[in-house]
């Protein structure tokens, strides 16, 4: 269900340029990470990347590097959120690690390989966008994960999962 939500949210991505875009598809990935852990969420991220290619292809060829990036995004969120209490510093650290590793290193690397653009130029464009968006994205992520944790705790304490498995 979270995979489908991520694919649907991808339809609302705003493209500034061919290499710079604004999206909230990281939210369902982080929710999945909190519930299912790093490996399953990494696999979900890779699956979402492939599904996004088929549902909203902007005319470019499929490049497996972005699938690796999406796996890493899910894996990193899973390392920070799975079976851990959601705190603002944890959310900020998780999102910062994803931004640095995936958004500022891996994705510009893949774009540089694909289009031959200068790596530093791609990073500098993304750096400005991510500095501006970081507090907004962390706030959204914190709120969503707190609510997800509350709902999950209520469902577990009500015995919903025990009834369902019988």
TrEMBL record:
<feature type="transmembrane region" description="Helical">
    <location>
        <begin position="61"/>
        <end position="82"/>
    </location>
</feature>
<dbReference type="InterPro" id="IPR030949">
    <property type="entry name" value="ECF_S_folate_fam"/>
</dbReference>
<protein>
    <recommendedName>
        <fullName>Folate transporter FolT</fullName>
    </recommendedName>
</protein>
<dbReference type="GO" id="GO:0022857">
    <property type="term" value="F:transmembrane transporter activity"/>
</dbReference>
<feature type="transmembrane region" description="Helical">
    <location>
        <begin position="127"/>
        <end position="145"/>
    </location>
</feature>
<feature type="transmembrane region" description="Helical">
    <location>
        <begin position="12"/>
        <end position="36"/>
    </location>
</feature>
<dbReference type="Pfam" id="PF12822">
    <property type="entry name" value="ECF_trnsprt"/>
</dbReference>
<feature type="transmembrane region" description="Helical">
    <location>
        <begin position="94"/>
        <end position="115"/>
    </location>
</feature>
<dbReference type="InterPro" id="IPR024529">
    <property type="entry name" value="ECF_trnsprt_substrate-spec"/>
</dbReference>
<keyword id="KW-0812">Transmembrane</keyword>
<keyword id="KW-0472">Membrane</keyword>
<keyword id="KW-1133">Transmembrane helix</keyword>
């Amino acid at each position: 269900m979270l995979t489908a939500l991520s694919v649907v949210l991808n339809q609302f991505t705003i493209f500034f340029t061919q290499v710079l875009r604004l999206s909230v598809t990281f939210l369902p990935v982080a929710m999945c990470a909190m519930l299912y852990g790093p490996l399953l969420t990494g696999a979900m991220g890779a699956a979402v990347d492939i599904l996004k290619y088929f549902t909203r292809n902007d005319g470019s060829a499929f490049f497996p590097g972005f699938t690796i990036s999406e796996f890493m995004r899910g894996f990193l969120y899973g390392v920070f959120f799975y079976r851990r209490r959601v705190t603002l510093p944890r959310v900020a650290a998780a999102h910062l690690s994803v931004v640095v590793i995936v958004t500022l290193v891996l994705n510009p690397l893949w774009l540089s390989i694909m289009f031959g653009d200068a790596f530093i130029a791609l990073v500098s464009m993304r750096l400005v966008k991510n500095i501006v968006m970081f507090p907004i994205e962390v706030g959204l992520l914190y709120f969503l994960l707190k609510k997800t944790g509350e709902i999950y705790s209520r469902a577990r304490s009500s015995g919903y999962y025990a009834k369902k498995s019988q």
